[in-house]
Fold:
Amino acid sequence: MYKDLQSVPKAYNEPVKEYRPGSPERIELQAMLKQMKSEEVEIPMVIGGKRVKSDNRIATHPPHDHGFVLGYYYKSEASHVTMAIDAALEASKTWSKMPWDHRAAIFLKAADLIAGPYRAKLNAATMLGQSKTAFQAEIDSACEIIDFLRFNVQYMTEIYSQQPASDKGIWNRLEYRPLEGFVYALTPFNFTAIAGNLPSAPAMMGNVVVWKCSNTQVYSARILMEIFEEAGVPDGVINLIFPSGPVGGKVVMEHPDFAGFHFTGSTGVFQQIWKTIGTNIAKYKTYPRIVGETGGKDFVVVHKSSNVDQVVTALVRGAFEYQGQKCSAASRAYIPDNLWPEIKDKLSDQVNGITMGDIEDFTNFMGAVIDEASFDKLALFIDNAKKDNDAEIIVGGDYDKSKGYFIRPTVIVTTDPHYITMEEELFGPVLTIYVYEAEKWEETLELVDNTSIYALTGAIFSNDRYATEYAVERLSQAAGNFYINDKPTGAVVGQQPFGGARASGTNDKAGSYLNLIRWTSPRTIKETLLPPTDYRYPFMQAD
Ligand code: NAD
Structure:
Protein backbone atom coordinates (compact mmCIF):
# COMPACT_ATOMS: atom_id res chain seq x y z
CA MET A 1 0.00 0.00 0.00
CA TYR A 2 2.77 2.46 0.95
CA LYS A 3 5.80 1.43 -1.03
CA ASP A 4 9.20 3.08 -0.59
CA LEU A 5 8.32 5.15 2.47
CA GLN A 6 11.98 5.45 3.37
CA SER A 7 12.99 6.96 0.07
CA VAL A 8 11.46 10.41 0.58
CA PRO A 9 14.09 13.18 0.66
CA LYS A 10 14.95 14.18 4.23
CA ALA A 11 13.39 17.51 5.19
CA TYR A 12 15.64 20.42 6.15
CA ASN A 13 14.97 24.02 7.15
CA GLU A 14 15.32 26.51 4.33
CA PRO A 15 18.26 28.85 5.11
CA VAL A 16 17.14 32.45 5.78
CA LYS A 17 18.61 34.99 3.38
CA GLU A 18 19.91 38.26 4.87
CA TYR A 19 19.17 40.92 2.23
CA ARG A 20 22.31 42.93 3.00
CA PRO A 21 23.03 45.90 0.74
CA GLY A 22 24.39 44.71 -2.61
CA SER A 23 23.43 41.05 -2.07
CA PRO A 24 21.91 39.25 -5.07
CA GLU A 25 18.71 38.51 -3.14
CA ARG A 26 18.26 42.19 -2.26
CA ILE A 27 18.82 43.33 -5.83
CA GLU A 28 16.33 40.75 -7.13
CA LEU A 29 13.72 41.61 -4.50
CA GLN A 30 13.97 45.35 -5.11
CA ALA A 31 13.57 44.84 -8.85
CA MET A 32 10.54 42.62 -8.21
CA LEU A 33 8.92 45.21 -5.92
CA LYS A 34 9.32 47.80 -8.64
CA GLN A 35 7.95 45.53 -11.32
CA MET A 36 4.95 44.43 -9.27
CA LYS A 37 4.07 48.00 -8.41
CA SER A 38 4.10 48.91 -12.07
CA GLU A 39 1.13 46.67 -12.88
CA GLU A 40 -2.39 46.48 -11.47
CA VAL A 41 -3.27 42.81 -11.37
CA GLU A 42 -6.57 41.01 -11.75
CA ILE A 43 -7.20 38.48 -8.97
CA PRO A 44 -10.02 36.14 -10.00
CA MET A 45 -11.17 33.16 -7.96
CA VAL A 46 -9.71 29.80 -8.95
CA ILE A 47 -12.42 27.13 -9.10
CA GLY A 48 -11.76 23.74 -10.68
CA GLY A 49 -8.68 25.27 -12.30
CA LYS A 50 -10.70 28.01 -14.00
CA ARG A 51 -10.34 31.76 -13.40
CA VAL A 52 -13.75 33.00 -12.24
CA LYS A 53 -14.88 36.61 -11.85
CA SER A 54 -18.00 38.08 -10.24
CA ASP A 55 -19.63 41.47 -10.80
CA ASN A 56 -18.16 42.74 -7.55
CA ARG A 57 -14.59 43.94 -8.22
CA ILE A 58 -12.70 45.22 -5.19
CA ALA A 59 -9.39 47.09 -5.10
CA THR A 60 -6.57 45.93 -2.86
CA HIS A 61 -3.99 48.36 -1.42
CA PRO A 62 -0.70 48.27 0.49
CA PRO A 63 -1.47 48.99 4.17
CA HIS A 64 1.41 51.48 4.22
CA ASP A 65 0.11 53.37 1.16
CA HIS A 66 -3.65 52.96 1.02
CA GLY A 67 -4.08 55.33 -1.91
CA PHE A 68 -2.13 52.98 -4.17
CA VAL A 69 -3.87 50.16 -6.04
CA LEU A 70 -2.08 46.81 -6.32
CA GLY A 71 -4.91 45.09 -8.12
CA TYR A 72 -8.51 43.94 -7.97
CA TYR A 73 -10.07 40.78 -6.61
CA TYR A 74 -13.56 39.49 -7.25
CA LYS A 75 -15.86 38.97 -4.31
CA SER A 76 -17.51 35.54 -4.26
CA GLU A 77 -21.25 35.06 -3.94
CA ALA A 78 -22.88 32.00 -2.37
CA SER A 79 -23.09 30.44 -5.86
CA HIS A 80 -19.29 30.55 -6.20
CA VAL A 81 -18.90 28.78 -2.88
CA THR A 82 -21.18 26.02 -4.16
CA MET A 83 -19.21 25.86 -7.42
CA ALA A 84 -15.98 25.47 -5.45
CA ILE A 85 -17.44 22.66 -3.34
CA ASP A 86 -18.70 20.88 -6.47
CA ALA A 87 -15.31 21.23 -8.15
CA ALA A 88 -13.59 19.87 -5.06
CA LEU A 89 -15.90 16.85 -4.80
CA GLU A 90 -15.42 16.10 -8.48
CA ALA A 91 -11.62 16.26 -8.12
CA SER A 92 -11.80 14.00 -5.09
CA LYS A 93 -12.80 11.06 -7.31
CA THR A 94 -9.28 10.88 -8.72
CA TRP A 95 -7.18 12.77 -6.17
CA SER A 96 -8.24 10.54 -3.28
CA LYS A 97 -6.75 7.60 -5.18
CA MET A 98 -3.49 9.31 -6.10
CA PRO A 99 -0.60 7.33 -4.51
CA TRP A 100 1.24 9.15 -1.72
CA ASP A 101 4.56 9.40 -3.56
CA HIS A 102 2.96 11.40 -6.38
CA ARG A 103 1.28 13.72 -3.90
CA ALA A 104 4.63 14.11 -2.12
CA ALA A 105 6.41 14.96 -5.36
CA ILE A 106 3.94 17.74 -6.12
CA PHE A 107 4.40 19.48 -2.78
CA LEU A 108 8.18 18.98 -2.77
CA LYS A 109 8.18 20.69 -6.14
CA ALA A 110 6.07 23.53 -4.72
CA ALA A 111 8.70 23.98 -1.98
CA ASP A 112 11.49 24.14 -4.54
CA LEU A 113 9.55 26.57 -6.71
CA ILE A 114 9.23 28.92 -3.73
CA ALA A 115 12.87 28.43 -2.70
CA GLY A 116 13.98 29.30 -6.25
CA PRO A 117 12.06 30.98 -9.04
CA TYR A 118 9.13 32.27 -6.96
CA ARG A 119 11.00 33.43 -3.87
CA ALA A 120 11.27 37.10 -4.80
CA LYS A 121 7.74 37.24 -6.19
CA LEU A 122 6.06 35.71 -3.14
CA ASN A 123 8.17 37.81 -0.77
CA ALA A 124 7.46 41.01 -2.72
CA ALA A 125 3.73 40.25 -2.74
CA THR A 126 3.78 39.69 1.03
CA MET A 127 5.69 42.93 1.56
CA LEU A 128 3.36 44.99 -0.61
CA GLY A 129 0.07 43.39 0.32
CA GLN A 130 0.64 42.79 4.03
CA SER A 131 3.27 45.47 4.84
CA LYS A 132 6.06 43.15 5.90
CA THR A 133 9.71 44.17 5.83
CA ALA A 134 12.02 42.14 3.59
CA PHE A 135 13.23 40.06 6.53
CA GLN A 136 9.73 39.44 7.94
CA ALA A 137 8.59 38.36 4.48
CA GLU A 138 11.62 36.09 4.03
CA ILE A 139 10.99 34.16 7.26
CA ASP A 140 7.30 33.81 6.38
CA SER A 141 6.61 33.62 2.65
CA ALA A 142 9.90 31.97 1.80
CA CYS A 143 11.28 29.90 4.67
CA GLU A 144 8.21 28.96 6.70
CA ILE A 145 6.03 27.85 3.82
CA ILE A 146 8.93 25.93 2.27
CA ASP A 147 9.54 24.23 5.62
CA PHE A 148 5.84 23.39 6.02
CA LEU A 149 5.80 21.72 2.61
CA ARG A 150 9.04 19.76 3.03
CA PHE A 151 8.47 18.66 6.62
CA ASN A 152 4.85 17.74 6.02
CA VAL A 153 5.94 15.34 3.29
CA GLN A 154 8.24 13.69 5.80
CA TYR A 155 5.53 13.59 8.50
CA MET A 156 3.10 12.10 6.02
CA THR A 157 5.45 9.18 5.41
CA GLU A 158 6.01 8.76 9.15
CA ILE A 159 2.24 8.53 9.66
CA TYR A 160 1.80 6.02 6.83
CA SER A 161 4.57 3.85 8.22
CA GLN A 162 2.69 3.40 11.52
CA GLN A 163 1.11 0.00 11.01
CA PRO A 164 -0.55 -2.40 13.46
CA ALA A 165 0.86 -5.76 14.53
CA SER A 166 -0.19 -8.88 12.68
CA ASP A 167 -0.59 -12.38 14.07
CA LYS A 168 -0.14 -15.90 12.74
CA GLY A 169 -2.38 -16.36 9.73
CA ILE A 170 -3.58 -12.75 9.90
CA TRP A 171 -2.34 -9.66 8.11
CA ASN A 172 -3.47 -6.30 9.58
CA ARG A 173 -3.07 -3.03 7.78
CA LEU A 174 -4.04 0.60 8.33
CA GLU A 175 -5.09 2.46 5.24
CA TYR A 176 -4.80 6.21 5.79
CA ARG A 177 -7.77 7.42 3.77
CA PRO A 178 -8.49 11.09 3.19
CA LEU A 179 -11.64 12.41 4.87
CA GLU A 180 -14.87 11.65 3.06
CA GLY A 181 -15.94 15.04 1.71
CA PHE A 182 -14.12 18.36 1.46
CA VAL A 183 -12.04 20.46 3.84
CA TYR A 184 -12.69 24.19 4.33
CA ALA A 185 -9.47 26.15 4.88
CA LEU A 186 -10.11 29.60 6.37
CA THR A 187 -6.90 31.57 6.61
CA PRO A 188 -5.66 34.75 8.35
CA PHE A 189 -3.93 37.81 6.91
CA ASN A 190 -0.79 37.76 8.95
CA PHE A 191 1.22 34.83 7.55
CA THR A 192 1.46 33.88 3.91
CA ALA A 193 2.94 30.60 5.17
CA ILE A 194 -0.17 29.80 7.20
CA ALA A 195 -2.38 30.75 4.26
CA GLY A 196 -0.43 28.24 2.17
CA ASN A 197 -0.23 25.52 4.80
CA LEU A 198 -3.90 25.37 5.71
CA PRO A 199 -5.07 24.21 2.26
CA SER A 200 -1.90 22.29 1.30
CA ALA A 201 -1.59 20.11 4.44
CA PRO A 202 -5.00 18.44 3.97
CA ALA A 203 -4.48 18.26 0.17
CA MET A 204 -1.18 16.49 0.70
CA MET A 205 -3.04 13.83 2.71
CA GLY A 206 -5.34 13.22 -0.26
CA ASN A 207 -8.14 15.64 0.63
CA VAL A 208 -9.81 18.24 -1.56
CA VAL A 209 -10.05 21.78 -0.28
CA VAL A 210 -12.12 24.94 -0.56
CA TRP A 211 -9.83 27.76 0.52
CA LYS A 212 -11.07 31.17 1.61
CA CYS A 213 -8.20 33.52 2.36
CA SER A 214 -8.41 36.82 4.22
CA ASN A 215 -9.48 39.86 2.13
CA THR A 216 -6.22 41.49 3.15
CA GLN A 217 -4.05 38.61 1.91
CA VAL A 218 -5.49 38.05 -1.58
CA TYR A 219 -2.47 39.63 -3.26
CA SER A 220 -0.03 36.94 -2.07
CA ALA A 221 -2.67 34.16 -1.99
CA ARG A 222 -3.01 34.37 -5.78
CA ILE A 223 0.72 33.63 -6.13
CA LEU A 224 0.52 30.64 -3.80
CA MET A 225 -2.26 29.35 -6.04
CA GLU A 226 -0.09 29.85 -9.13
CA ILE A 227 2.71 27.89 -7.44
CA PHE A 228 0.44 25.02 -6.43
CA GLU A 229 -0.78 24.77 -10.03
CA GLU A 230 2.70 24.89 -11.50
CA ALA A 231 3.83 22.22 -9.02
CA GLY A 232 1.12 19.93 -10.36
CA VAL A 233 -1.81 20.16 -7.93
CA PRO A 234 -4.65 19.02 -10.23
CA ASP A 235 -7.62 21.25 -10.99
CA GLY A 236 -10.23 21.29 -8.24
CA VAL A 237 -8.00 19.89 -5.50
CA ILE A 238 -7.52 23.38 -4.02
CA ASN A 239 -10.11 26.02 -4.93
CA LEU A 240 -9.50 29.66 -3.95
CA ILE A 241 -12.55 31.83 -3.28
CA PHE A 242 -13.20 35.28 -1.79
CA PRO A 243 -16.61 35.33 -0.12
CA SER A 244 -17.31 37.34 3.03
CA GLY A 245 -16.86 35.15 6.11
CA PRO A 246 -20.59 34.66 6.79
CA VAL A 247 -21.47 33.96 3.11
CA GLY A 248 -18.73 31.33 2.81
CA GLY A 249 -19.52 29.85 6.20
CA LYS A 250 -23.24 29.48 5.54
CA VAL A 251 -22.84 27.44 2.35
CA VAL A 252 -19.98 25.34 3.67
CA MET A 253 -21.36 24.61 7.13
CA GLU A 254 -24.69 23.43 5.74
CA HIS A 255 -23.20 21.07 3.19
CA PRO A 256 -23.53 17.34 3.91
CA ASP A 257 -20.02 16.68 2.54
CA PHE A 258 -18.32 19.19 4.85
CA ALA A 259 -15.67 16.94 6.43
CA GLY A 260 -13.01 19.18 7.92
CA PHE A 261 -12.29 22.73 9.01
CA HIS A 262 -8.73 24.05 9.01
CA PHE A 263 -8.70 27.47 10.61
CA THR A 264 -6.27 30.07 11.82
CA GLY A 265 -7.65 33.40 12.94
CA SER A 266 -9.32 35.06 15.87
CA THR A 267 -10.91 33.22 18.78
CA GLY A 268 -14.33 34.85 18.33
CA VAL A 269 -14.68 33.70 14.71
CA PHE A 270 -13.55 30.18 15.59
CA GLN A 271 -16.00 29.87 18.46
CA GLN A 272 -18.84 31.17 16.30
CA ILE A 273 -18.08 28.63 13.59
CA TRP A 274 -17.72 25.78 16.05
CA LYS A 275 -21.20 26.65 17.38
CA THR A 276 -22.62 26.57 13.83
CA ILE A 277 -21.00 23.20 13.19
CA GLY A 278 -22.53 21.93 16.43
CA THR A 279 -25.97 23.17 15.45
CA ASN A 280 -25.69 21.52 12.02
CA ILE A 281 -24.06 18.32 13.21
CA ALA A 282 -26.88 16.02 12.08
CA LYS A 283 -26.64 17.36 8.52
CA TYR A 284 -23.17 15.96 7.85
CA LYS A 285 -22.28 12.53 6.49
CA THR A 286 -19.33 12.39 8.84
CA TYR A 287 -18.23 14.30 11.96
CA PRO A 288 -16.11 17.18 10.64
CA ARG A 289 -12.56 17.42 11.93
CA ILE A 290 -12.12 20.82 13.56
CA VAL A 291 -8.61 22.26 13.77
CA GLY A 292 -8.24 25.87 14.84
CA GLU A 293 -5.28 27.96 15.93
CA THR A 294 -6.55 31.23 17.32
CA GLY A 295 -5.66 34.26 19.44
CA GLY A 296 -3.03 34.87 22.08
CA LYS A 297 -2.08 37.23 24.88
CA ASP A 298 1.50 36.17 25.04
CA PHE A 299 3.63 36.92 28.06
CA VAL A 300 7.22 37.59 29.02
CA VAL A 301 7.94 37.10 32.73
CA VAL A 302 11.29 38.32 33.93
CA HIS A 303 12.97 36.99 37.08
CA LYS A 304 15.12 39.29 39.23
CA SER A 305 18.24 37.32 38.15
CA SER A 306 17.84 38.13 34.44
CA ASN A 307 20.19 39.90 32.07
CA VAL A 308 18.69 43.29 31.22
CA ASP A 309 20.02 43.58 27.66
CA GLN A 310 18.70 40.14 26.75
CA VAL A 311 15.28 41.04 28.16
CA VAL A 312 15.10 44.37 26.32
CA THR A 313 16.07 42.83 22.97
CA ALA A 314 13.45 40.09 23.40
CA LEU A 315 10.78 42.65 24.27
CA VAL A 316 11.54 44.88 21.30
CA ARG A 317 11.69 42.06 18.77
CA GLY A 318 8.93 40.00 20.37
CA ALA A 319 6.45 42.86 20.67
CA PHE A 320 7.09 44.98 17.60
CA GLU A 321 8.32 42.89 14.68
CA TYR A 322 5.63 42.82 12.02
CA GLN A 323 3.88 45.57 14.00
CA GLY A 324 2.96 43.11 16.76
CA GLN A 325 0.63 41.30 14.36
CA LYS A 326 1.82 37.81 15.21
CA CYS A 327 -0.36 35.52 17.23
CA SER A 328 2.80 34.87 19.27
CA ALA A 329 3.75 38.54 19.80
CA ALA A 330 4.80 39.56 23.31
CA SER A 331 1.94 41.74 24.49
CA ARG A 332 2.16 41.63 28.29
CA ALA A 333 5.34 41.65 30.35
CA TYR A 334 6.00 41.26 34.06
CA ILE A 335 9.15 43.04 35.18
CA PRO A 336 10.69 42.85 38.70
CA ASP A 337 11.16 46.18 40.43
CA ASN A 338 14.91 45.62 40.97
CA LEU A 339 15.48 45.65 37.19
CA TRP A 340 12.74 48.06 36.15
CA PRO A 341 14.68 51.39 36.18
CA GLU A 342 17.36 50.00 33.86
CA ILE A 343 14.90 48.10 31.64
CA LYS A 344 12.68 51.19 31.40
CA ASP A 345 15.53 53.41 30.21
CA LYS A 346 16.91 50.99 27.68
CA LEU A 347 13.52 49.89 26.38
CA SER A 348 12.33 53.50 25.94
CA ASP A 349 15.52 54.43 24.11
CA GLN A 350 15.32 51.49 21.74
CA VAL A 351 11.61 51.79 21.03
CA ASN A 352 11.98 55.51 20.38
CA GLY A 353 14.65 54.66 17.85
CA ILE A 354 12.55 52.16 15.89
CA THR A 355 12.27 53.13 12.25
CA MET A 356 8.83 52.78 10.69
CA GLY A 357 7.47 53.49 7.23
CA ASP A 358 7.23 52.12 3.70
CA ILE A 359 8.62 48.59 3.54
CA GLU A 360 10.38 49.42 0.27
CA ASP A 361 12.78 51.47 2.38
CA PHE A 362 14.87 48.64 3.80
CA THR A 363 16.08 50.74 6.75
CA ASN A 364 12.63 50.47 8.34
CA PHE A 365 12.08 47.94 11.14
CA MET A 366 8.29 48.27 10.97
CA GLY A 367 5.56 48.86 8.38
CA ALA A 368 1.88 49.67 8.80
CA VAL A 369 -0.89 47.69 10.51
CA ILE A 370 -3.10 45.72 8.19
CA ASP A 371 -6.19 47.90 7.70
CA GLU A 372 -8.27 50.80 8.91
CA ALA A 373 -10.41 48.72 11.28
CA SER A 374 -7.29 47.47 13.04
CA PHE A 375 -5.79 50.98 13.09
CA ASP A 376 -8.94 52.51 14.61
CA LYS A 377 -9.19 49.81 17.24
CA LEU A 378 -5.56 50.24 18.29
CA ALA A 379 -5.89 54.04 18.34
CA LEU A 380 -8.85 53.71 20.69
CA PHE A 381 -6.94 51.51 23.16
CA ILE A 382 -4.04 53.98 23.04
CA ASP A 383 -6.33 56.98 23.63
CA ASN A 384 -7.93 55.23 26.58
CA ALA A 385 -4.53 54.43 28.05
CA LYS A 386 -3.68 58.15 27.81
CA LYS A 387 -6.77 58.93 29.92
CA ASP A 388 -6.81 56.06 32.40
CA ASN A 389 -5.33 56.68 35.85
CA ASP A 390 -3.93 53.18 36.16
CA ALA A 391 -2.03 53.32 32.85
CA GLU A 392 0.84 55.41 31.55
CA ILE A 393 2.32 55.43 28.08
CA ILE A 394 6.08 55.59 28.54
CA VAL A 395 6.96 55.50 24.85
CA GLY A 396 4.99 55.73 21.59
CA GLY A 397 1.30 56.57 21.59
CA ASP A 398 1.31 58.39 18.24
CA TYR A 399 -0.56 57.24 15.17
CA ASP A 400 -1.32 58.55 11.70
CA LYS A 401 -3.43 57.08 8.91
CA SER A 402 -3.08 59.86 6.35
CA LYS A 403 -0.93 57.77 3.96
CA GLY A 404 -0.78 54.35 5.59
CA TYR A 405 -2.04 52.77 8.80
CA PHE A 406 0.92 53.68 10.98
CA ILE A 407 0.96 53.19 14.74
CA ARG A 408 4.14 54.02 16.62
CA PRO A 409 5.36 51.13 18.79
CA THR A 410 3.81 51.82 22.16
CA VAL A 411 4.66 50.71 25.69
CA ILE A 412 2.02 51.08 28.39
CA VAL A 413 2.92 50.63 32.04
CA THR A 414 0.02 49.76 34.31
CA THR A 415 -0.43 49.50 38.05
CA ASP A 416 -3.37 47.14 37.56
CA PRO A 417 -2.29 43.64 36.46
CA HIS A 418 -5.79 43.15 35.05
CA TYR A 419 -5.81 46.38 33.05
CA ILE A 420 -7.63 45.78 29.76
CA THR A 421 -4.48 45.70 27.61
CA MET A 422 -3.00 43.03 29.93
CA GLU A 423 -5.94 40.76 29.10
CA GLU A 424 -7.31 41.44 25.61
CA GLU A 425 -5.57 40.58 22.37
CA LEU A 426 -5.00 43.87 20.50
CA PHE A 427 -2.98 42.48 17.59
CA GLY A 428 -0.80 45.52 17.09
CA PRO A 429 2.41 47.20 18.27
CA VAL A 430 1.35 47.70 21.87
CA LEU A 431 3.16 46.14 24.82
CA THR A 432 1.79 46.47 28.34
CA ILE A 433 4.06 46.10 31.37
CA TYR A 434 3.27 45.38 34.98
CA VAL A 435 6.07 45.95 37.47
CA TYR A 436 6.01 43.47 40.35
CA GLU A 437 7.86 43.21 43.65
CA ALA A 438 11.01 41.25 42.83
CA GLU A 439 10.55 38.81 45.72
CA LYS A 440 7.05 37.81 44.59
CA TRP A 441 8.03 35.32 41.85
CA GLU A 442 5.49 32.64 42.82
CA GLU A 443 2.59 35.11 43.16
CA THR A 444 3.50 36.69 39.84
CA LEU A 445 3.50 33.37 38.03
CA GLU A 446 0.08 32.69 39.49
CA LEU A 447 -1.06 36.03 38.09
CA VAL A 448 0.42 35.25 34.66
CA ASP A 449 -1.41 31.93 34.58
CA ASN A 450 -4.78 33.36 35.58
CA THR A 451 -4.88 36.70 33.78
CA SER A 452 -5.86 35.70 30.26
CA ILE A 453 -8.17 33.21 28.56
CA TYR A 454 -5.38 32.39 26.08
CA ALA A 455 -2.48 29.95 26.27
CA LEU A 456 -0.51 30.33 23.07
CA THR A 457 3.08 31.44 23.69
CA GLY A 458 5.00 32.66 26.70
CA ALA A 459 8.56 33.31 27.74
CA ILE A 460 10.44 33.48 31.01
CA PHE A 461 13.79 35.12 31.58
CA SER A 462 15.86 33.87 34.48
CA ASN A 463 19.44 33.05 35.43
CA ASP A 464 18.37 31.18 38.55
CA ARG A 465 17.73 27.52 37.77
CA TYR A 466 15.40 27.02 40.75
CA ALA A 467 13.26 29.94 39.58
CA THR A 468 13.33 28.59 36.03
CA GLU A 469 12.34 25.10 37.10
CA TYR A 470 9.51 26.46 39.25
CA ALA A 471 8.17 28.62 36.39
CA VAL A 472 8.26 25.77 33.84
CA GLU A 473 6.18 23.67 36.20
CA ARG A 474 3.84 26.41 37.45
CA LEU A 475 3.05 27.61 33.93
CA SER A 476 2.63 24.15 32.41
CA GLN A 477 -0.80 24.98 30.96
CA ALA A 478 -0.21 28.69 30.29
CA ALA A 479 1.37 28.33 26.85
CA GLY A 480 1.58 25.75 24.07
CA ASN A 481 4.95 27.20 23.02
CA PHE A 482 7.12 28.03 26.01
CA TYR A 483 10.44 29.83 25.81
CA ILE A 484 13.26 30.05 28.34
CA ASN A 485 15.51 33.09 27.86
CA ASP A 486 14.12 33.84 24.42
CA LYS A 487 11.38 35.93 22.83
CA PRO A 488 8.01 34.19 22.43
CA THR A 489 7.90 34.54 18.62
CA GLY A 490 9.70 32.90 15.71
CA ALA A 491 8.78 29.20 15.96
CA VAL A 492 10.51 27.16 13.27
CA VAL A 493 8.76 24.27 11.50
CA GLY A 494 10.31 20.94 12.45
CA GLN A 495 11.90 22.47 15.56
CA GLN A 496 9.16 24.11 17.62
CA PRO A 497 5.78 22.66 16.54
CA PHE A 498 3.30 25.52 16.98
CA GLY A 499 -0.02 25.95 18.73
CA GLY A 500 -1.73 26.62 22.02
CA ALA A 501 -4.66 25.42 24.09
CA ARG A 502 -7.30 27.14 26.25
CA ALA A 503 -8.92 29.85 24.07
CA SER A 504 -5.90 29.79 21.72
CA GLY A 505 -7.00 26.76 19.76
CA THR A 506 -7.15 23.01 19.47
CA ASN A 507 -3.35 22.77 19.78
CA ASP A 508 -2.92 20.47 16.81
CA LYS A 509 0.58 21.84 16.29
CA ALA A 510 1.10 23.17 12.79
CA GLY A 511 4.35 21.88 11.35
CA SER A 512 4.18 18.45 12.96
CA TYR A 513 2.62 15.03 12.40
CA LEU A 514 -0.02 15.99 14.99
CA ASN A 515 -1.63 18.37 12.52
CA LEU A 516 -1.38 16.08 9.50
CA ILE A 517 -2.91 13.18 11.36
CA ARG A 518 -6.17 15.15 11.63
CA TRP A 519 -6.57 15.02 7.85
CA THR A 520 -6.80 11.27 7.56
CA SER A 521 -9.52 8.82 8.49
CA PRO A 522 -7.81 5.46 8.81
CA ARG A 523 -9.40 2.20 7.74
CA THR A 524 -8.28 -0.98 9.44
CA ILE A 525 -8.02 -3.94 7.12
CA LYS A 526 -7.76 -7.40 8.62
CA GLU A 527 -7.06 -10.17 6.19
CA THR A 528 -7.31 -13.79 7.31
CA LEU A 529 -5.08 -16.04 5.28
CA LEU A 530 -6.70 -19.43 6.01
CA PRO A 531 -10.22 -18.74 7.32
CA PRO A 532 -11.72 -21.34 9.73
CA THR A 533 -14.29 -23.74 8.37
CA ASP A 534 -15.98 -24.94 11.56
CA TYR A 535 -18.01 -22.59 13.76
CA ARG A 536 -17.51 -24.72 16.91
CA TYR A 537 -14.71 -23.86 19.41
CA PRO A 538 -12.51 -26.54 21.08
CA PHE A 539 -13.96 -25.82 24.54
CA MET A 540 -17.28 -27.10 23.30
CA GLN A 541 -15.99 -30.66 22.98
CA ALA A 542 -17.36 -33.07 25.59
CA ASP A 543 -15.02 -34.24 28.45
P1 NAD B 1 -9.88 36.78 11.55
O1 NAD B 1 -10.47 35.85 12.54
O2 NAD B 1 -10.43 38.14 11.46
O3 NAD B 1 -9.95 36.16 10.08
C1 NAD B 1 -9.55 34.83 9.80
C2 NAD B 1 -10.34 34.34 8.60
O4 NAD B 1 -11.71 34.23 8.99
C3 NAD B 1 -10.31 35.30 7.42
O5 NAD B 1 -10.26 34.56 6.22
C4 NAD B 1 -11.60 36.07 7.57
O6 NAD B 1 -12.07 36.57 6.35
C5 NAD B 1 -12.52 35.00 8.10
N1 NAD B 1 -13.64 35.54 8.87
C6 NAD B 1 -13.70 36.70 9.57
N2 NAD B 1 -14.91 36.83 10.14
C7 NAD B 1 -15.63 35.74 9.80
C8 NAD B 1 -16.95 35.29 10.10
N3 NAD B 1 -17.78 36.00 10.87
N4 NAD B 1 -17.34 34.10 9.60
C9 NAD B 1 -16.51 33.35 8.85
N5 NAD B 1 -15.26 33.73 8.53
C10 NAD B 1 -14.82 34.90 9.00
O7 NAD B 1 -8.31 36.82 11.87
P2 NAD B 1 -7.19 37.71 11.17
O8 NAD B 1 -7.38 39.13 11.59
O9 NAD B 1 -7.04 37.40 9.74
O10 NAD B 1 -5.90 37.14 11.90
C11 NAD B 1 -5.53 37.55 13.17
C12 NAD B 1 -5.96 36.56 14.22
O11 NAD B 1 -5.43 35.29 13.92
C13 NAD B 1 -5.43 36.90 15.60
O12 NAD B 1 -6.42 36.64 16.56
C14 NAD B 1 -4.26 35.96 15.76
O13 NAD B 1 -3.90 35.68 17.09
C15 NAD B 1 -4.74 34.76 15.03
N6 NAD B 1 -3.64 33.92 14.58
C16 NAD B 1 -3.39 32.78 15.28
C17 NAD B 1 -2.34 31.96 14.90
C18 NAD B 1 -2.04 30.71 15.66
O14 NAD B 1 -1.29 29.88 15.16
N7 NAD B 1 -2.62 30.52 16.84
C19 NAD B 1 -1.54 32.31 13.82
C20 NAD B 1 -1.84 33.49 13.12
C21 NAD B 1 -2.91 34.27 13.50
